[in-house]
Amino acid sequence: MISIKSPFEVANEIAKKAQEKRLKLNLSQQTLSEKSGVSYGTLKKFEQKGQISLESLLKIALALGEMDQFEHLFAKMDDKLPASLDELLDDHPRKRGRK
Question: Residue 77 pLDDT more than 80?
Answer without folding.
Answer: no
